[in-house]
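Re: folding output
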Amino acid sequence: MIFHVSIPADDPQRVAEVIAEIWGGEAFRFPPWPGAWVAIAGDENGTTCEVYPRSQTMAPGEGEDDPVWPKLDESPSKYVAFHFATSTDKSEDEIVAIAKREGWRTVSCPRGEFFDVIEVWVENRLHVEVLTHAMQDDYRKNVNMEMWRWTQKDAA
């Protein structure tokens, strides 16, 4: 179970507000991190998405017991090798309308024969997969350890 994720954004407040809207939750300032916002789903798991300014990367503390801290990146990459899939109670049309309103690329597409997703490209640079109820049902039915075992057959 992943309880929360963090993502970079050019406009952390706006991105947190849209993610909260997709979830039916709320967005708040995130005081521990300069300029950050957080989207809270309001579900029983405390599902959260922290949204940091794209120019601030996470760096490990310098001392043995020092926690993570924001490290400025003068020229952050536009794209990242990171994404997450999330659920929504909204319909596909509602998700597409939200993304369209924001001017974000949206593509409805299959992931093989296993499940479908709505690709929402947050700020047209960060990939988020949104799954409606029907998509979530297919995901739960088809994505499991047995489904992934085929990847081990050629490795032996």
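--- second protein (sequence, then structure) ---
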Amino acid sequence: MFNTLRSRLLAISRPVTLTMAGALLTLNVAAILYGVFARYIAGGAPIWTDELSRFLIIATVMLAAGAVWSEGGHMRVGLLEKLLPTSFARLLNVYQWLLTLLIAAGGAWVSYRYALSVSMFTTSGLGISRTVPLLSLPVGFLLLTWHVLLYGPAPLKTVEDNL
């Protein structure tokens, strides 16, 4: 029952986070196109389009990272897992899962503390607190942690699994 709940939550969480990342990517393309239009057609682009574009691309990547990880979309070498005996391969999978979980949770904590520490500064183009765009980092790391927890210490998917 616990495994089916985990797999259902993962099956729901992946498309939701990828849809949110896709929406941010669409917004990013719109901001870039507006900047290009303003610069070359209207005669001058506002400074905020470049800054918004940078923040949106970072937020897009951070939101999608967990879903892409659970689908096996990140580049990695899985040869060692195939060459090891089954028991050692299972141990390696648990080690990789724990290490990823630790790094993702640690990244969430460190990036959250950093985002809060720069709250007194504002961005040059948008004029908002730097904390606002930097909060995409801990949110992304938390989503990665969530996806890693839901996926569990199972072997990661490979390109051959998706064919």
